[in-house]
């Protein structure tokens, strides 16, 4: 009987150790994906500001894009998703199909979409693992905050 209990505790310990390591790796991946998304959002805002200042769009479109790009760059953490969504709407509302900007802007928009999807997929995986009973009972996530998805209009 004592051997069965010892083997059970050993298996539980191995599972807990493996799961805690997996959670740690997932949390690092969430942070890396978030940093990648932030970088792609910054690139897109910089490209839009450059396009708006190039003098090839009409003044109203240039002003709209420049304002939206500036607001997205300077947004606080609480306003970030709204400001980035507003930048997407401004891009879609203006005629940015100017060569060679159209290809670069399209690529930047696509990279933002992919980075956001990748981030959100990792967040969902992390949250699913953290919601398992044994993980919460054994407090394997430690004090790490529950990661959140990024919801913004990105043209997808």
Tell me what the structure shows.
By secondary structure, this protein is mostly helical. The protein has helices at residues 2-53, 59-73, 80-93, 101-130, 133-137. The longest helix is centred in the N-terminal third of the chain and has 52 residues, at 2-53.
Name the descriptors.
156 residues; mainly alpha; 5 helices; rod-shaped
Structural class: mainly alpha
Rg is 22 Å
How would you describe the shape?
A: rod-shaped
Q: What portion of the residues fall into strands of 2 or more residues? A: under 5%
Oligomer state of the chains in this structure? single chain
Give the proportion of residues in helices. Answer: over 70%
Distance between the termini: 58 Å
Task: Summarize the entry for a quick read.
The chain has helices at 2-53, 59-73, 80-93, 101-130, 133-137. By secondary structure, the protein is mainly alpha-helical.
Topology summary:
Layout: H1 2-53, H2 59-73, H3 80-93, H4 101-130, H5 133-137
